[in-house]
Structure formats: C-alpha cells, structure tokens
Design goal:
The structure holds 2 protein chains of 2 kinds. Helix content of chain A is about 25%, strand content about 30%. Chain A is of the alpha+beta class. The relative contact order of chain A is 0.30. In chain A, β2 and β3 form a beta hairpin. Chain B contains 13 helices and 22 strands. In chain B, β9 and β10 form a beta hairpin. The chains are: A alpha+beta, B alpha+beta. At the A-B interface, β2, β3, β4 and β5 of A face α10, β16, β17 and β21 of B.
C-alpha cells in the first residue's frame, strides 16, 4: 500500500497553549481531499495520539474533526502548568514535531 | 440598527510595535471603535506573579499613542483590555499615566475610564466560605492554602464594566484583565446587537491579522458588524480574509473550535456559515449564544523560589551514549550535600528531550552533541546558586568506566551560574460564581 507522510498532506501543523494547562494541536489541510483522506484513514484519533506521545488517553482532553476549516484538532493536558519550574515550552509551540512523520495510507 | 465598524490593530498591544501602514488604512475607513487587547496568560506566570510588564514601555507607548491620536481625531471610543500584559492595577496605572502624558504632549482632552480588576487575597479567601471556586482545565477547586501561595490575583472582566464605562461617557477605556472577546463585544451589545453577534465579532477580531492569510503579525483588520453577520477585512493590502483563514482562526489557542465560554454564557459556532464575499473579505453568519450562570475567571500566580541556571555541553560520543550516567552522578553529589527535598532541580537535555520532555516520542536519539541546562529553584539565591554550581560541575567530574577524556567530562560554557528571574507558577485558574457582574471590578472616571 502506498503511504504519504502527514507533513506532505497538511498545509499547517502547529501546537500552542490553550489556557495555562493545555497544549492544543491543529492539523489544517488546504486541500479538502487530503483532509477527507486523513480523516478516513484512522491514523489520527485519541488512541493513536496517546500512543504517539506515549501518554495515557485521559490526558487528551479533546479531539475534534473541524470540517469548516478542513482541520483535525486535539488538545493535551500539560504535565504541569506552563512556565512552572522544569517546564520547557512556555507557549507550547514546539510540541507538534512528532505529527509530521505520521504515515497515512493512500 | 446601523452597521458598526471596529478596527482591531493588534492582538497584544505593546508586545511588538503595531504596523502603522495597515493601521492608518483602517483609520481612513472611519471605524466606530478602536479596540485592542494588551494581555495574555501565554507569557507564563512570572509577569503576573511578580507584577511586572513583559513588554518595554516604549512599545506600549508607541501603540497607545497611535490609537489615542487616531481615536481623538475621529472622535470615537478606544478600548484597551488587560493593560500592560497582565491587567493588574500596576498595569492599569501605568497605561493611565502613559495616556495622560500623551494627552498633555498633544493637548488632547477627553473622558477617561479605567477599570481595576485585581483581587485582594483575603477577599478571595472570604469568598471561599460562601461559594465553590471551581478549578478549570485540571486544576483542583480553590482552597485557602492555594490562595496563600499566590502573590497576585486578577479577575477577568466581561462586558458589563466596559458597557458601564461607555454609558458614563468614556472616550478612552483602560481596562484591567479582561476577556479578549468581551472588550469587542461590549460596545456592540451596547449598540443593541445580540450577544451571539457581539461575542462572535470579538472572537474573530481579537487577534487582529491572525484571522487573515498569509501569516502576518501586528497588522490591522476591520470588522463590519450588523445584527446576525460579521464581515472581516484585512487592512494590509497583501493579506486576505478567506473562509479557510477565518475558520481556522476559530481553532487558534482554544480547545474547542465550536464552543467558546465567555463570562455569562457560551458562544456556539457549530452552525457558522462562512462565505467568501470577494478575494479579501469573508462574511460569517449562523453563530448562537447560550446564557449561563455568571462566573468570573480568576487568574493567579505565586512565587516558588529563587532560580539559577547553568549551561553545559557534551561532545564525546561515549558520554552522549551514557548521558544518563553523567546525570545520575551529578544528582548523587547534590543529594549528598543537600539530603533534604527543599529545592527543585531539573536537567534540561537539549538534543535528547529538552523541548518535549515527557512528550518526546524519540527514546534513543543519537545526537553528535548535547546541551544541558541545569535549573535549580530554592528558597534563597545563595542556595539555588550553590546547588546549580554543584550539579553543573559534577557533570564535569562524572565517573564513567571507559571515559577517555579524563580531564573533564563536560564543556562548561563558562564556569558560572546564571542568576535567573525568580520562579513562579500558575496557582489560580478558576471560575468564581458572582451575583453582581460589577462586584469584582472598580470603575474610575477622570476628565483629561
């Protein structure tokens, strides 16, 4: 089966704080075909995300397929609130990297 | 009901100076209001806890001066929320001082309203005897000991105090901590629009040019608002508000793209219809609003301790492969001297998992070099400094069986400890039920 990486299919892949204790991830497709393809493929859901970041599923506080923007969005609870001692990404803006290489069957 | 035009020049006033070109384009179109938010919790707990601005005053003045002069020239109200990054009384007072200075320099006269939203710790503790202050996003419900651990508390105001200030005839409003969308919604509700229209307009306009494409910061956008519909247009000639850019902005920095909780209700965007009017403007309709019991969000941050850092590097592949052993040795030596648990010590290993920590999926990286940042938080600067030095230097003396570099097992960038700003943490991220929408806020009026 042919596979493509998520980074080749999506136009935006980003992460950012959503409040002081969550990091939210947006995967946006400028091509609706690609959006439908990824949605249908089943590579992105609560359980695959939990596995990817090696966290329990209950840390994923929401997972939404957002058709108006051709986007998939999920939110992870932080280990500690942003900016606490020992924290490393106060804006939560560099946590999306593992998503880039997700393999999507075509 | 007439169409209302709101100019949104920046998503965070003062954080970086706003761009003049698109701002003046917007001013030429004669908006009815100029509205800008100046704060964010994104900057972390330090600035609120220590009650300091995170933006240089020169930049804040730059933005305030442009907006004040334009709003006086057009004789329209300007509304600034979350003054000076955190919206504390210090922030409000600072902006009031800047506004007065600019007014004096330019011989401007107007009615000023400023609204405090900082909360007294004892009053919050008292409130705990009567109401449950509910923890948000995984925080436990508020308890008195958490209030004790907090240095600064602000309440996030909704539309009511701003509407009141406009009713009082204010031309310039400097608000303490405010809900971003409420500072836009307030004048619209006062003009007779529904909460659905008003809050949606606030939602789409609050980050200025972030609702347009291509990505540009600090450029102005204009909202054209009629009951039941909002049209957005970027003021920068190379930006476009497209269905995609506007819809994707509704996801930005939020958990749920369909629902947004605001003081006193929920904005429901699940049935929004986005229409491209032309290449640069998008119209949005279909938003709804559900009233809820009024709860006001409280934000608070407290000092954890003094903080020091040290920067260390590793290049020997053997050391990199056995970096856990190096860290183990360092921790052991610190523990020997400081057996108590009265400090926090962190090893940020850039090249291994420095950015993602526990979320890092790559468990066996093979970098050719590693940067270690040692971070220690302790009750005194001296102790934080000593522990940081001890931890960093002992990566230099790590005892590993086959190391070839017997003159030192680490590259200390310089053998010094960096004194960082004190460590703070978010302590309060809670919602407090109130009967009276004004009870946590204090409106002051002044003729300038």
């Amino acid at each position: 089966m042919e596979v493509r990486k998520l980074v080749e299919l999506a136009s935006t892949i980003r992460s950012k704080n959503a409040g002081v204790n969550n990091i939210t991830f947006d995967i946006i497709f400028s091509n609706p075909e690609n959006y439908r393809l990824v949605k249908k493929s089943g590579v992105l859901n609560k359980s695959t995300v939990a596995k990817l970041f090696d966290i329990s599923e209950d840390r994923i506080v929401s997972f939404v397929e957002f058709d108006p923007a051709n986007a998939i969005k999920f939110t992870i609870r932080r280990g500690k609130p942003s900016g606490s001692p020992g924290e490393s990404d106060v804006f939560g803006s560099q946590q999306y990297a593992p998503l880039l290489d997700i393999k999507v069957p075509i | 009901m007439r169409e209302i035009k709101i100019l949104s020049p920046t998503g965070h006033l003062g954080f970086t100076p706003l761009e003049k070109g698109s701002f003046f384009t917007g001013v030429e179109k004669e908006p009815d209001y100029i509205v800008a938010d100046s704060g964010s919790a994104d900057i972390g707990p330090y600035y609120l806890g220590a009650d300091k601005p995170c933006s240089p005053e020169m930049w804040q003045r730059h933005d305030l001066e442009l907006i004040l002069k334009a709003s006086r020239e057009l004789d329209i109200p300007m509304i600034i929320g979350s003054a000076s990054d955190t919206g504390t009384n210090r922030g409000v007072d600072q902006y009031v001082r800047i506004i007065k200075e600019i007014a004096k320099e330019n011989n401007l006269h107007f009615n000023l309203a400023y609204i405090y939203s900082q909360q007294d710790k004892d009053k919050v503790k008292q409130a705990l005897n009567e109401v449950r202050i509910e923890g948000l996003d995984g925080f436990d419900d508020l308890t008195p000991d958490v209030v004790d651990k907090t240095d600064t508390i602000v309440a996030v105001m909704g539309t009511d105090p701003i509407i009141e200030a406009l009713d009082d005839g204010a031309d310039v409003i400097i608000a303490g901590r405010s809900s971003d969308s409420s500072i836009f919604a307030a004048p619209l509700i006062r003009e007779g629009m529904s909460k659905a229209t008003a809050y949606y307009a606030g939602k789409v306009l609050e980050c200025a040019s972030f609702c347009a494409e291509p990505f540009m910061g600090k450029e102005s956008v204009m909202g054209y608002i009629q009951e039941g519909e909002v049209v957005v247009e970027p003021m920068h000639p190379k930006q476009r508000c497209t269905v995609a850019s506007v819809a994707s902005h509704s996801m930005y920095e939020r958990i749920d793209p369909y629902y947004e909780r605001v003081p006193g209700g929920i904005l429901d965007m699940s049935e929004c219809v986005y229409e491209q009017l032309d290449s640069r403007r998008t119209r949005i309709t279909g938003f709804k609003f559900k009233e809820e019991e009024l709860k006001i969000k409280l934000e608070g941050a407290g000092k954890v301790g003094e903080r020091c850092l040290s920067i260390v590097g590793f290049r020997d592949p053997y050391l990199i492969q056995h970096i856990d052993g190096v860290i183990e040795w360092s921790k052991r030596k610190v523990k020997e001297r400081f057996p108590d648990k009265s400090y926090q010590l962190y090893y940020h290993l850039y090249g291994i998992n420095g950015v993602m920590r526990d979320l890092e999926p790559i468990k066996n990286p093979s970098p050719h070099e590693i940067c270690l940042i040692v971070e220690c938080v302790a009750e005194t600067v001296e102790k934080a400094e000593e522990i940081t030095a001890l931890a960093a230097r002992n990566t230099f003396y790590a005892r590993l069986p086959e190391v070839k570099g017997t003159a030192g097992t680490a590259a200390l960038m310089s053998d010094e400890v960096l004194l960082a700003k004190p460590a703070y943490e978010w302590t309060i991220n809670h919602a407090m039920p109130v009967d009276d929408p004004f009870e946590l806020f204090e409106i002051h009026l002044a003729e300038i």
